[in-house]
Amino acid sequence: MNHSTPVSARPVTRVAPLWVLWLSLISIGVWSGFFGPIQVLLAQQAEAISPEHKEGVLSLVTGVGALVSTVLNPLWGAFSDRTTLRVGRRLPWVAGGLAGGVVAMLLLSIAETVWLMVLAWALAQAALNAMLAAITATVPDQVPVIQRGAVGGWLAIAQTFGVVVGSGLAAATGSIAAGYLAVAGVLVLTSLPYLLDSRDLALDPADRAPFVWRTFVRSFWISPRQHPDFAWAWLTRFLMNLGNALLLLYLLYYLKDAIGLSSKEAESGVFWLTLIYGVVTILTAIVGGYWSDRIGRRKPFVIWSGLIAAAALALLAYADTWALALIGAVVLAVGFGAYTAVDFAMITQVLPSDADRAKDLGVINIANALPQVLAPVVAAGVLGTGLGYSSLYLVAAAVSALGSVLVVRIRSLA
Question: What is the pTM of this model?
Answer without folding.
Answer: 0.77
